[in-house]
Amino acid sequence: MTQPHTSIQKENPPPVTIVIFGASGDLTQRKLIPALYSLSCDELLSASTQVIGVARTEFDDQAFREHLFQGVSKNARLKPADDCENWDSFASRISYLVGDYDDPDTYQQLAERIAQNDENFGTGGNRLFHMAIPPAVFTEVVEQMGRSGLNQSEQGWSHIVVEKPFGTNLESARELNKTIHTAFSESQVYRIDHYLGKETVQNLMTLRFANAIFEPIWNHNYIDNIQITVAESVGVGQRAGFYDQTGVLRDMFQNHVMQLLALTTIEPPVAFEAETFRDKKVDVLRAVRPIDRNLRGQYGSGDGVKAYRQEKDVDDDSKTATFAALRLFIDNWRWKNVPFYLRSGKRLATKSTSIVIEFKRVPHLMFPLGDREELPPNILYLCIQPNEGIKLSLQTKQPGAGMETHSADIDYAFAQDFEERDLPEAYERLLLDAISGDATLFTRADEIELAWRIIDPVLERWQSPDGPPCHRYSPGSWGPEQAEGFIEQDGRHWHYGCGE
Ligand code: BG6
Predict the structure, then answer these.
(1) Which of 172, 333, 351, 383 could crosslink 498 through cysteines, CB 3.0-4.6 Å?
(2) Options 130, 159, 256, 495, the catalytic residue
(3) How far does CA 315 lie from the centroid of its chain?
(4) What is the DSSP letter of 370?
(5) Given this model, what pLDDT does residue 2 score?
(6) Is it the case that residue 325 has pLDDT exceeding 90?
(7) What region does 8 belong to: left with phi over 0, alpha with psi -120 to 50, or beta?
């Protein structure tokens, strides 16, 4: 057996038939199959694993495999030609089923194919359903699965993986949870937030809970403020029609930013295990105070880039926000009065996700300030992507006769120890966990509803006729110029320390 490239080891992953609804779409070609292929190259999937793609688009098995091969060649961590000669045997385990989602016959045929897999390949009655379908057909598919008995398995298990967007507000998320629960119990459900599958997001847990030095100072006594930035340099691309109905709060804050916030602020769990861990996230999300300050923006044109409103399928007078900044507080013992500044946007200066912890200054300074107005605080930069690493800025002595201080950085880059190909893609980790029945890195029903409860009032305010202005910003900037005043009114400023 070859040595796996990655360290994501699961003991004997069970054999399974993976069914992808919406298999002709972009997600399957770009993320799901490349992830499964890399896992199979690393021998992290059972050799009996079978994949059935279901969708309305006409394909035969061969054409479907060729279509997937293109995605794998381009997007997989391990490439068919260079890293692993596994494609033919992997592809032989993939088949395709053309069918309408509202036709009971589709589900009947699917059930027969799964039963054949159990018999011919020993997949043991285990099924993983991946819902890569648009929200408009989601309810129909879940109901049909319930009616046809696909939601249960007598010999094995039946898990369902649900993609975002998970509703468009609290009410619709509750409805969705209800629909899912008509056919599946919560323990069968795996709601994906791909940020939780990222190595460096998980590393936040390691940093906080595998090092003794942080926990004693990880609270309002020592921390002045925390900034979470998820900046993207890309625009809305081909998804403008979808994005215009969605906007940055639903697209990035309700899910990814809230998850980063939760992981930064949770109390130490006693075990890295699904219910314990998610209970802690729920606790902290429940303590978030209604948001008292927010700012929205939309990119205009500039530098050969067209304005958001000029994108295909976007109205000329669209007020959809492509940038937002929020300030919030967490009303619990640990975080009393610590402001959290959150921001995310498209067409910003660079792609960068970071969590920046700014510590309080020393209570009394015995050294001369020199030409500085005040001593800079200690700052811990957790750089999530793309320059994955950790940086701590602190004060040292300025060489010479005096006692002036000098700012210095301790910098650790993941690239020092790991190669790009060692780091599994988010979907690899998440699919393997869903197959292995480990829901720790998936969001639970109550957690998702709580995240909506935080975001909903801001969304409603923005949708009202007297909502706040939607400021224009230049592509390649850091958002509307008002974003500076947003934080400066608290006597603070945004930090850029992850190589931006
Ligand atoms: C998705 C959003 O969930 O996350 C996209 O829908 C966004 O709009 C993407 O571009 C960002 O993910 P990543 O992994 O590139 O940071």
Answers:
(1) 383
(2) 256
(3) 28
(4) T
(5) 37
(6) yes
(7) beta
Helix (H, G, I), strand (E, B) or coil at 375: coil
CA distance 246 to 252: 10
Q: Looking up tokens 């699965």, which residue turns up?
A: 145
Grouping H, G, I as helix, E, B as strand and the rest as coil, residue 6 is: coil
- Mind giving me the DSSP string for 35-101? HHHHHHHTT-S-TT-EEEEEESS---HHHHHHHHHHHHHHH-SS-TTTT---HHHHHTTEEEEE--T
**What are the DSSP E strand ranges found in 195-257?**
223-231
CA–CA distance, 393 with 377 (Å, rounded to integer): 8
Which residues are registered as beta bridge partners of 294?
A: 326
Q: What is the DSSP string of 158-202?
A: EEEEEPSP--SSHHHHHHHHHHHHHHS-GGGEEE--GGGGSHHHH
State how far the Cα of 85 lies from the Cα of 78, in Å rounded to an integer. Answer: 10
> Any idea what the Cα angle at residue 170 is, between residues 168 and 174, rounded to 5°?
100
Burial class of residue 251, CB neighbours in 10 A (0-12, 13-18, 19+): buried
Residue whose CA is at the smallest distance from ligand 1 atom 5: 251
Instruction: Please give the distance of CA 421 from its chain centroid, rounded to a whole number.
Output: 20
Tokens (6 digits) for 446: 């109550």
Q: What is the pLDDT of residue 9?
A: 57
Structure tokens at 358: 């700014």
Backbone angles phi, psi at 429, to 5 degrees: -60, -45
**198 CA → ligand 1 middle, Å:** 12
462 C-alpha vs ligand 1 centroid, how far in Å? Answer: 22
The answer to whether 427 and 32 have CB atoms below 8 angstroms apart is yes
Known catalytic residue: 256?
yes
Q: Which helix (H) or strand (E) holds 454?
A: helix 445-463
Q: Which amino acid is residue 251, in one-letter code?
A: D
Out of 3-7, 372-376, 494-498, the most confident range is 494-498
Query: Residue 384 and residue 352: Cα distance in Å, rounded?
Result: 8
Give 310-318's long-range contacts (Cβ < 8 A, gap of 24+).
Answer: 311/235, 311/236, 311/240, 312/240, 312/241, 313/240, 313/241, 313/244, 314/236, 314/240, 314/241, 314/243, 314/244, 315/244, 318/244
What are the φ/ψ torsions at residue 264 (nearest 5 degrees)? -70, -25
Q: Name the 3-class secondary structure at 207.
A: helix
Residue nearest to atom 8 of ligand 1 (CA): 251
Q: Whose Cα sits closest to atom 10 in ligand 1?
A: 232
Q: Within a 10 A sphere around the Cβ of 234, how many other Cβ atoms?
A: 9
Minimum mean pLDDT among 32-46, 241-255, 410-424, 483-497: which range? 410-424
